[in-house]
Design a protein that fits this description.
By secondary structure, the protein is an alpha+beta fold. Helix content is 23%, strand content 41%. The longest helix has 30 residues.
Length: 358
């Protein structure tokens, strides 16, 4: 076969490849422009375009609903719309002033009232063929502003000379929420827990903390927190807790080991020390009495690096860590000096057990 013949065949091959590629591109472009109908599942929520109005779906929180929409259009645009939905997640649809307000829930047509306001759909050049459900229940209402007093509520704490940065607060809510809540005083939200945390951090009786606000019936009526706006949203509370702080011994506390799996496969932990000990805990006297030693966690952590440094058979000294139950954040362990455990990592003999596993 001559070189000239090879060149001729190569040119024919390249020509055939180009023709094939162009044909495929034409077919792909034509396919992308074929019109078809595709169902989409869309998670939506409503909001108001006007700050003086409220708009939201009537559902259990978080006030979102899934609708199924059959959209018709070119495959390329349907594909782009699906990609957009995957990136967006929940779609927020703004309700403007063209929709009337009411203190009662109202039915909105999914196709006529809701989907035409969906910005993502407006820009997709797709047509709505069908939607399920046909209607959505929503609240669209005017927002009213009132001034309410703040009610002090410190739970089980006895607070001496409390001072609030505000005695009254501005509250903005839709009219239907006012109808349910009335002029109920605003209360300090979780003030007891916040104050206990502040006192525990300061290791004293005085506190000065910012406390958020709520209205007592909001949770009972399952009102979305977004329906109610406090201005300001929190108040600064100062005072002193009437409680004597004491230090008492609690125990015995069982000390456990935290050992990485890769260490446990080849080594056991050996120690001659007792893995039960008492510690001092400081806090309000009534709270210390309620604290059960069995609920205090104590542990020693073994590191994977201990196998190399200091290595098997070598003595390791490590502090014992302690943690109180979360509801006793106003109490703290007093670790002076900090308890320590001495131990060794010994090669495992297979079936042997060690008292050090706690």
């Amino acid at each position: 076969m001559t070189s000239n013949t090879i060149k001729i065949r190569w040119r024919k091959f390249k020509t055939a490849m180009v023709v094939t590629l162009i044909t495929l591109l034409i077919w792909y472009a034509a396919d992308m422009n074929v019109s078809e109908t595709t169902p989409f599942s869309i998670q939506i929520r409503l909001t108001s375009a006007d700050p003086d109005r409220y708009a939201g779906l009537v559902t259990e929180g978080p006030y979102e609903q899934t609708i199924t929409v059959d959209l018709k259009g070119r495959r390329r645009r349907l594909r782009d719309f699906r990609d957009l939905l995957e990136k967006t997640g929940v779609v927020t649809i703004e309700i403007d002033r063209s929709q009337p307000t009411s203190v009662e829930p109202q039915e909105l047509s999914t196709i006529d009232d809701v989907l035409p306001r969906m910005k993502e759909l407006q820009e997709s050049w797709l047509n709505i063929d069908n939607a399920t459900p046909k209607t959505l229940k929503a609240r669209i209402d005017e927002i009213e502003t009132r001034v309410l007093p703040i009610k002090e509520d410190f739970g089980n704490l006895e607070v001496s000379a409390p001072h609030l940065s505000h005695q009254n607060i501005t509250v903005r809510m839709p009219r239907f929420a006012w109808a349910m809540l009335g002029d109920e005083p605003v209360v300090l939200d979780n003030a007891e827990g916040i104050i206990r945390d502040a006192v525990a951090r300061a290791d004293g009786d005085s506190f000065e903390e910012d406390v958020p606000l709520t209205m007592g019936l909001m949770n009972d009526l399952k009102l979305d927190a977004d329906m109610v706006e406090f201005q300001p949203s929190e108040v600064r509370v100062t005072g002193r807790i009437r409680a004597t702080r004491v230090t008492k011994s609690k125990g015995p506390i069982q000390i456990k080991w935290y050992i990485p799996n890769e260490v446990q496969k080849e080594y056991v932990v050996e120690t001659e020390q007792e893995l039960r000990m008492n510690i001092d805990v400081k806090g309000p006297e009534n709270r210390i009495e309620q604290l059960n030693a069995a609920d205090i966690r104590g542990w020693v952590e073994v590191f994977a690096g201990d196998v190399d440094d200091p290595g098997p058979g070598k003595e390791i000294t490590r502090k014992v860590e302690f943690r109180l139950p979360t509801e006793f954040s106003d109490c703290i362990p007093v670790l002076e000096p900090h308890p320590e455990i001495r131990f060794r990592l010994e090669p495992s003999t297979g079936n042997s057990t060690t008292s050090s596993q706690g």
